[in-house]
Design brief:
CATH topology of the largest domain: Immunoglobulin-like
CATH class of the largest domain: Mainly Beta
Helix content: under 10%
Shape: globular
CATH architecture of the largest domain: Sandwich
CATH superfamily of the largest domain: Thiol:disulfide interchange protein DsbD, N-terminal domain
Distance between the termini: 36 Å
């Protein structure tokens, strides 16, 4: 069973590196056959630049999406010691949803590039980044890594920029097609599920992942309900009911045009017809 185990079963890997002046840091092995590094496009547009955390792992090893699921922990980043870094945002590629040892998780397997958008200022930004993430195979361990990277904005790293752009192409973007996907969404507390009335029958709802701003609230795969045109996302776990009324939900999904997401504010159960 893939769970996070208390000491001494947890193996913690910590690395401290000297600054590197290139579009990448050296690889750091953080678990057996699993390595991390930081890569950079070395391009600034409108005060922002793109970096990425790159993971090299076998297909039998995985890490977690922004809503990790029932067993994982989300990626945690800090930029203490950086120069010229004001804000950052992780831009998440669409994950796989898997049931692992009976638990629903949202994961990435194998080689992964996680884009990071940084707001920077000054002529010579310096990145000092601390990362904590879960890496799993037979067991799960939280791993720790530190990266230091001088950004050279006078010399664009085209190969790394291409790899970051390829990862960005796999991230959900706001739905911009003529027809809506979901007409309404509501929380059914009695049955511990969120109901969504579909308005586009051409979308394969089976890929949909429902999430809120609270990454600890997890929903299972969507299921057809007894009401025509309505699907149900079962809520997993006992906590968080008070956060599901009149709140904004994010629905991420795959389509024939690629990954998309929509934001939907919940309505009353009566309004959805549930």
């Amino acid at each position: 069973m893939c769970r996070f185990f208390p000491s001494p079963a947890i193996v913690v890997f910590v690395f401290l590196l000297a600054p590197v002046q290139a579009g990448e840091t050296p690889w750091q092995e953080v678990a057996p056959q699993a390595s991390l590094r930081l890569i950079s496009s070395d391009v600034v547009r409108n005060g922002k630049t793109m970096l990425a955390l790159e993971l090299s792992m076998p297909e039998t090893t995985w890490t977690y999406w922004r809503v990790p699921g029932e067993t994982g922990i989300p990626l945690q980043l800090a930029f203490e010691g950086s120069r010229g870094v004001k804000e950052f945002e992780v831009i998440w590629p669409f994950p796989k949803r898997e049931v692992i040892y009976g638990y629903v998780d949202h994961i990435y397997r194998g080689d992964v590039v996680l884009p990071l958008e940084l707001s920077v200022e000054g002529d010579n930004p310096f990145v000092s980044m601390q990362a904590v993430l879960g890496v799993c195979s037979d067991i799960c361990v939280p791993v720790f890594a530190n990266f230091e990277l001088e950004l050279n904005m006078e010399k664009r790293d085209r190969s790394q920029a291409l790899r970051i752009n390829q990862a960005l192409a796999r991230t959900p973007i706001p739905w911009d097609q003529p027809s809506d996907v979901i007409e309404a969404i509501a929380f059914d507390q009695k049955n511990q599920q969120v109901l969504a009335r579909l308005s586009n029958s051409n979308i394969d709802f089976s890929s949909m992942i429902l999430a809120t701003q609270n990454s600890s609230i997890v929903f299972g795969p969507p299921q057809k309900s007894q009401i025509e045109g309505i699907i149900a996302f079962p809520k997993l776990g006992a906590n968080g009911d008070e956060e599901l009324y009149e709140q904004s939900f994010t629905v991420s999904f795959m389509s024939s045009l690629g990954p998309y997401e929509i934001e939907q504010t919940s309505v009353s159960l009566a309004d959805i017809g549930g």
